[in-house]
TrEMBL record:
Keywords: NAD, Nucleotide-binding, Oxidoreductase. This is Alanine dehydrogenase. One of its GO terms (molecular function) is nucleotide binding. It catalyses: L-alanine + NAD(+) + H2O = pyruvate + NH4(+) + NADH + H(+). NAD(+) binds at S134, D198, R203, V239, L240, V267, A268, I269, D270, V298, A299, N300, M301. Its EC number is 1.4.1.1. Pfam families: AlaDh_PNT_C, AlaDh_PNT_N. Residues 4-137 form the Alanine dehydrogenase/pyridine nucleotide transhydrogenase N-terminal domain. Substrate binds at R15, K75.
Length: 372
């Protein structure tokens, strides 16, 4: 198979879909790997590292899209990239279609087959291709939230750990999955007073067993969220209903009950955001103010630490990328129902129910797509 990896073009996105190590393994499996010139530079991988791994360098994204059977990326294809996708081509990347009708329309029109990293599952009920980036975004969230709390950035002027004689920042983390757990660990490590809220009692039992003493847990009822929001210096949004648009857990009205200059960090923004007033921002201009509350809503947070993120993502995607290349997508998905859960689009039809429900579009069952 010809595997193509273009340079990411989303603003301030420095990750790359394939590391030289991933390219080396694909070449060892007998595949041709095409990398766009300079694609890895932002993550610290120069063209020579890919050539050394046996890959070939192509001058433009156009060459990559024209020649490759499978495109391996990081972020959802941007409008210009969507125009280059073609019928029968396989796209393997993050998509986050539920809040993105424009991208969905273009992918359906292209006739491509698209497997979304964020909906591939594992045997433990986890999301193995989302997890590494959730670990990164979770660990970054208190760091960017602390920056947002600084006065010069519009924040309340509160230090996460306080100082002797002055109490710490109060941090509420909504959603205690991968993002929430890593965010809580780091915020607690910075000395903040942290509470994690979730709707899953087994998850809260786990968090209490492992982290009791470092941070507290509370059930994520509307009442508890409203009460804690009043006291919070920082709220980190980390909920997920896989594939679906995020539920709105703090309304615009509630902002007036919060402390002026408090920080909302909405990590769930890539699924539409879990605060009513959230809208996606970029690393170039990450924070905005609504009613005196500072919102940080960057949809590709891991891009800020591109080298760590690229290597972590590559470790997770490599076995799936190799299975898709070795067997073709149909056989690979037939052999692995968890990979089939990643199928979102095939030959002009949506194949993921939560996305169809969010966008009001009919869905072809992925099992039927395999037979088409
Ligand atoms: N902005 C960015 O750069 C990035 C965003 N993300 C996003 O972060 C979000 C969280 O991802 P993960 O932690 O990996 O998911 P996860 O599935 O590990 O955790 C989500 C948690 O939310 C909980 N939850 C669901 N509905 C809830 C509700 N109404 N109230 C409270 N808790 C609720 C679930 O019980 C679960 O424990 C996703 O939307 C993901 O796409 C992930 C990585 C990077
Ligand atoms: C999860 C995701 O969308 C990202 O890492 O950018
Ligand atoms: Mg994202």
């Amino acid at each position: 198979m010809i595997i193509g990896c273009p340079k990411e073009i989303k603003p301030q996105e420095f990750r790359v879909g394939m590391t030289p190590n991933a390219a080396r393994e694909a070449v060892a499996h007998g595949h041709t790997v095409l990398i766009e010139a300079g694609a890895g530079l932002g993550a610290g991988f120069d063209d020579a590292a890919y050539i050394d791994a046996g890959a070939q360098i192509e001058a433009t994204a156009k060459d990559i899209f024209a020649k490759a059977d499978m495109i391996v990326k990081v972020k959802e294809p941007q409008p210009g990239e969507r125009k280059m996708l073609r019928e029968g081509q396989l796209l393997f990347t993050y998509l986050h279609l539920a809040p993105d009708p424009e991208q969905t329309k273009d992918l359906l029109a292209s006739g491509c087959t698209a497997i979304a990293y964020e909906t591939v599952t594992d045997a433990n009920g986890g999301l193995p291709l989302l997890a590494p980036m959730s670990e990164v975004a979770g660990r970054l969230a208190p760091q960017v939230g602390a920056w947002t709390l600084q006065k010069a950035n519009g924040g309340r002027g509160v230090l996460m750990g306080g100082v002797p004689g002055v109490g710490p920042a109060r941090v509420m983390v909504i959603g205690g999955g991968v993002v929430g757990t890593h965010a809580a660990k780091i915020a607690a490590g910075m000395g903040a007073d942290v509470t994690v809220l979730d709707r899953s009692l087994p998850r809260m039992r786990y968090l209490d067993d492992v982290f009791g003493g470092q941070f507290k847990t509370q059930y994520a009822s509307t009442g508890n969220i409203a009460e804690l929001a009043i006291e919070a210096d920082m709220v980190i949004g980390a909920v997920l209903i896989p594939g679906a648009a995020a539920p709105k857990l703090i309304t615009r009205e509630q902002l007036s009950t919060m402390k002026p200059g408090a920080a909302l960090v909405d990590v769930a923004i890539d699924q539409g955001g879990c605060f009513e007033t959230s809208k996606a921002t970029t690393h170039a201009d990450p924070v905005y103010d609504v009613d005196g509350i500072m919102h940080y809503c960057v949809a590709n947070m891991p891009g800020a630490v591109a080298r760590t993120s690229t290597i972590a993502l590559g470790n997770a995607t490599m076995p799936f990328m190799l299975a898709l290349a070795d067997k073709g997508w149909k056989q690979a998905c037939e052999d692995d129902p968890h990979l089939l859960n990643g199928l979102n689009v095939h030959a002009g039809q949506l194949t993921y129910y939560a996305v169809g429900k969010a966008l009001g579009i009919d869905v072809l069952s992925p099992q039927l797509a395999l037979k088409s």
